């Protein structure tokens, strides 16, 4: 099937397929839009059951990056890479080098960075082949480096904004937050919330990881398949996408959903379902922009860490604008945010 026959095809400017037999690389780079600049978005290393799933992921994630970068005020378009991990193979230097050459072949139309399964050390390998890389280790007060902590910080500020909006509370002391996935983003968020005295319920398919963090921070660990229906003040999805479905939304027992995972809504209709339940939803690509703000400014050579923090601090205000418009028009927050983003990328 051609990329444009997929339901998630959205007038993407290009979908590029790369294979390097020697290293075992199979990768897809989807460029959704370069209207605002080079298409920026991380590289995901993941085992997909079918190649179709990888193409769908690249299409959805790259569109999300166009929206995310536009809403974050970055002069960058949206793209995403996925490397189809072979469960019997390894993420070797040769494979990362082949990926770097693939990025280089696009001549700067796509700029890569870390995503799930890719570390800053991996990006160092990629950078040996191409300059169109961000998320590289930096020293001192420079912008850049692992985007995870910056994403977590933006989500923390967004969760606090959602709690102010929905619960009329200014502090997080005793506010119950249930986090799905405690990796780089969810784990960082948990630590920031623990500092404020929030009550934490944590879950991860890596059960030991959730248990260890719960023990360290004084929270509770629950099985991964029960986290979305925990009775809490905030559900924070910080694992993978498409977890907000008709079924899971019906089972939610929290007034707020605000988390870092990309593409949380399984279908556009799910934004309407969550709204119809009166739940405050933080559109994922708005609340989780902290990491791309950090690596975007690194790539562009604009500003330092203080500038990154200043721009991340604008995330709550952006969410408030979306919720206010949603309240005045009666439309789901997801629809309001999409319309704002589409206008910014010249598709409104
Ligand atoms: P990560 O790999 O560090 O952590 C993800 C965690 O989720 C892992 O601990 C994994 O075991 C767990 N997990 C996977 N499936 C799960 C499930 N079904 N239930 C519970 N736990 C599950 O990845 P990350 O960097 O923390 O990213 C998390 C999410 O945030 C992803 O959707 C990613 O695309 C998104 N995101 C990340 C960044 C960033 O800067 N890292 C930026 C924007 C968005």
TrEMBL record:
InterPro entries: Aminoacid_DH-like_N_sf, Glu/Leu/Phe/Val/Trp_DH, Glu/Leu/Phe/Val/Trp_DH_C, Glu/Leu/Phe/Val/Trp_DH_dimer, Glu/Leu/Phe/Val_DH_AS, Glu/Phe/Leu/Val/Trp_DH_bac/arc, NAD(P)-bd_dom_sf. Pfam families: ELFV_dehydrog, ELFV_dehydrog_N. It comes from the Bacteria. The keyword NAD applies. Residues 145-348 form the Glutamate/phenylalanine/leucine/valine/L-tryptophan dehydrogenase C-terminal domain. The keyword Oxidoreductase applies. Keywords: NAD, Oxidoreductase. Belongs to the Glu/Leu/Phe/Val dehydrogenases family. This is Amino acid dehydrogenase. It comes from Sphingomonas abietis.
């Amino acid at each position: 099937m051609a990329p444009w026959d997929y339901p998630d095809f959205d007038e993407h400017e290009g979908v590029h397929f790369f294979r390097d037999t020697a290293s075992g690389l199979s990768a897809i780079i989807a460029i959704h839009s370069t209207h605002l600049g080079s298409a920026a978005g991380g590289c995901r290393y993941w085992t997909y059951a079918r190649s179709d799933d990888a193409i769908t992921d690249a299409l959805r994630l790259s569109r999300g990056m166009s929206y995310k970068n536009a809403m974050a005020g970055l002069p960058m378009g949206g793209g995403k890479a996925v490397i189809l991990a072979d469960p019997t193979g390894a993420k070797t230097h040769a494979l990362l080098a082949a990926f770097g050459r693939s990025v280089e072949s696009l001549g700067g139309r796509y700029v890569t960075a870390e995503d799930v399964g890719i570390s800053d050390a991996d990006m160092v390998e990629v950078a040996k082949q191409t300059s169109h890389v961000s998320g590289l280790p930096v020293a001192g007060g420079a912008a850049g480096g692992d985007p995870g902590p910056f994403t977590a910080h933006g989500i923390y500020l967004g969760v606090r904004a959602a709690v102010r909006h929905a619960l009329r509370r200014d502090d997080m002391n005793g506010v119950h937050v249930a986090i799905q996935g405690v990796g780089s983003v969810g784990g960082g968020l948990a630590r920031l919330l623990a500092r404020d005295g929030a009550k934490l319920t944590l879950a991860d398919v890596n059960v030991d990881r959730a248990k260890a963090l719960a023990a360290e921070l004084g929270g509770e660990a629950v099985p991964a398949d029960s986290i979305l229906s925990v009775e809490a003040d905030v559900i924070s999805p910080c694992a993978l996408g498409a977890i907000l479905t008709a079924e899971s939304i019906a089972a939610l027992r929290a007034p707020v959903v605000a988390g870092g995972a990309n593409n949380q809504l399984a279908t556009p209709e799910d934004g309407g379902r969550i709204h119809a339940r009166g739940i405050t939803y933080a559109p994922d690509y708005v609340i989780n922009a902290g990491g791309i703000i950090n690596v975007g400014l690194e790539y562009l050579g604009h500003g330092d860490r203080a500038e990154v923090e200043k721009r991340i601090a604008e995330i709550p205000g952006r969410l408030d604008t979306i919720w206010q418009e949603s309240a005045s028009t009666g439309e789901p927050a997801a629809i309001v945010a999409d319309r704002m983003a589409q206008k910014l990328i010249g598709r409104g």
